[in-house]
Amino acid sequence: MKYNVVVASKNPVKVNAALDGLKRMFPEDAFMPTPVSVPSGVADQPMSDQETLHGALNRVENARASHPEADFWIGIEGGIEKFNGELAAFAWVVVQDREQTGKARSGAFFLPKAVQELVEQGLELGDADDQVFGHSNSKQKGGAIGLLTQNALDRRELYEQAVVLALVPFKNKAYYLNPRQEQQV
């Protein structure tokens, strides 16, 4: 089948992560992306797990309102949260179709102190990364994780895994739409 997918971002990293995750879970289908810039309703740099999830949910709702004819809507929101004095970075992914919603969080990693200090002064993570590592527009490339791992893992891969996890309910609709109904595996 061929599906229209609205990705709630024009950032190529997020668009490609969404498409790659969909292709991994549904290799027999085709996905036609429509990247849209919609507001998250949260700070440019979400500073908690809850705020980050809220931003991803808002992006999906705003994408759905702007393109109600689509088959899927996907929101990806990167965020950070402080744990024991250190900042961890991660993302939330929310996927909707006409019947259900899937949500998942990416893996998390801790940021270097120099990056943490700039973020705590009000810079977005991508801007702090660019300043500390001497790069430009890293958030549309490998992101902090790409810089820190010398691209052994980049932002698209980190987000793609969370997209796959958010698609679990779509791959297993019988279990998620009819939770009381016993199913054969």
UniProtKB/TrEMBL annotation:
Gene3D superfamilies: 3.90.950.10. SUPFAM superfamilies: ITPase-like. It catalyses: ITP + H2O = IDP + phosphate + H(+); XTP + H2O = XDP + phosphate + H(+). Pfam families: NTPase_I-T (PF01931). It comes from the Bacteria. Binds 1 divalent metal cation per subunit; can use either Mg(2+) or Mn(2+). Mg(2+) binds at residue 69. Keywords: Hydrolase, Magnesium, Manganese, Metal-binding, Nucleotide metabolism, Nucleotide-binding. Its cofactor is Mg(2+); Mn(2+). GO terms for molecular function: ITPase activity; metal ion binding; nucleotide binding. One of its GO terms (biological process) is nucleotide metabolic process. It is an enzyme of class 3 (hydrolase). Substrate binds at residues 69-70. Its EC number is 3.6.1.73. InterPro entries: ITPase-like_fam (IPR029001), Non_canon_purine_NTPase (IPR002786), NTPase/PRRC1 (IPR026533), YjjX_NTPase (IPR050299). The keyword Protein biosynthesis does not apply. Residues 8-170 form the Non-canonical purine NTP phosphatase/PRRC1 domain. Homodimer. Phosphatase that hydrolyzes non-canonical purine nucleotides such as XTP and ITP to their respective diphosphate derivatives. Probably excludes non-canonical purines from DNA/RNA precursor pool, thus preventing their incorporation into DNA/RNA and avoiding chromosomal lesions. Belongs to the YjjX NTPase family. This is Probable inosine/xanthosine triphosphatase. It comes from Pontibacter akesuensis. The lineage of its organism: Bacteria, Pseudomonadati, Bacteroidota, Cytophagia, Cytophagales.
